[in-house]
Amino acid sequence: MVNVQSNHRMNQHGVLEIDGVTSTELVKQYGTPLMVYNETAIRQNCREFKQTFDQSGLTYQVAYAGKAFLCMDMVRLVKEEGMSLDVVSGGELYTALQAGFPVERIHFHGNNKSVEELEMGIDAGIGCFVVDNFIELELLHELAAEREQKVNILLRVTPGVEAHTHDYIMTGQEDSKFGFDVGNGQGKLGVQLALQKPYFHLLGVHSHIGSQIFETEGFQYAIEVLARFLQEVREESDVVMSVLNVGGGFGVRYTEEDEPLPIREYVKSITEAVKFSFGQLSYPTPEIWVEPGRSIVAEAGTTLYKIGTQKNLPGIRKYVAIDGGMTDNLRPALYKARYDALLANRANEERTEVVSIAGKACESGDMLIWDIALPPVRMGDTLAVFSTGAYGYSMANNYNRTPRPAVVFVKEGESRLVIRRESYRDLVRNDVLHHGVEAVVKSQ
């Protein structure tokens, strides 16, 4: 059975509609490949996080993790929903600033922030840096001291929790490129060093235990570990920290086999664990920050492709090629990620063939979906792939000099372009062409 979100429907003509806009209209107006975001669904997800936190009685911030998908119109939407914003690069920070996002609600992550990126954040006056390692701790303070400007920081710590997720997206275990390890003493040393630096205001700690997590036990255990850590810091340094950031990683549904919890269940579990763990230690309950990204946008996104050639290998499989693939959705090649799909223009027809969906890149690994049942496909049909809203466009690339797709938002029967389709002219914009050896010599 195909995983079709509740805000999708098939009309009487067997055509897929996304929040009141037919896929055929979208393809005609914007072409393919096309990434379509349901704005109503995105806003509903944002509000579910905030409403559930409101019910907890705790002070909190919900920061959208921009790495999942970011553009200026997405920044505008996050701003309108009253959320904070998590950025992990100078490019994401620049996008936020250009879109007029409130700087005091920007959190800057990353394990290797450059001098230029740190300076950009300091000069903009962003709300918080999440410091990842000892070198950054020294470098950020040097830059802040040069400006005589105090900055807010969190220390990213690894609590030693291995979430039930793909090995490539586990980030809270001890052997990780991210953060100060709690188990080997690096976490406490990082705190001590930060407290000695006059241009730092150490708000608290941050941890992220992984991604695409379908249970709450990992969060509960991490909160227990971090509460004990903060209690030990208080006993040793007489410092009470005011912020605990437990990251993101909340699971979403890509196929029918996936069984994520509702957003409210993740939030309730986190808030209850915080109240219990800190209550047991008589530690002042900190402000709780979370960083949902995938759970905000993944299921709100659908990618539309045009079907092209086919190759039938009797007794083996039938390949059906689309006009996109790993250049707009790298996750199947990177993570062996799985997706559901259907023929958007013939959605009600019986699915009598099992085919495999191949991308058009010159890589045998460019396979979007293995073994999916569809009606007999025809060249020119539209394939809709669901739950592509996270880490699709943000990982899109120009391999084989393929232009990146257009992105549109739809809402209540209307669509609008938020990212233009790249052109061939865009692909050569930064190229430098030298006319022979003579030109090269003269340039030297």
CATH topology-level name of the largest domain: TIM Barrel
Give the helix proportion (percent range): 25-40%
The mean pLDDT is 93
Total strands: the figure is 21
CATH H-level name of the largest domain... which superfamily? Alanine racemase
Gross geometry: globular
CATH architecture of the largest domain: Alpha-Beta Barrel
What's the CATH C level of the largest domain? Alpha Beta
**How many domains make up the 3D coordinates?**
2
Task: Report on the biggest sheet.
Answer: 9 strands, mixed
Q: Provide the structure class.
A: alpha/beta
Topology of helices and strands:
Blueprint: E1 8-10, E2 16-18, E3 21-22, H1 23-30, E4 34-38, H2 39-56, E5 60-65, H3 72-80, E6 84-87, H4 90-98, E7 106-108, H5 115-124, E8 128-131, H6 134-147, E9 151-158, E10 180-181, H7 186-195, E11 200-206, H8 217-237, E12 243-245, H9 263-280, E13 287-290, H10 294-297, E14 301-313, E15 317-322, H11 331-335, E16 341-343, E17 353-358, E18 367-374, E19 382-386, E20 406-411, E21 414-419, H12 424-427, H13 436-443
Helix pairs in contact: 2-9, 4-5, 5-6, 8-9
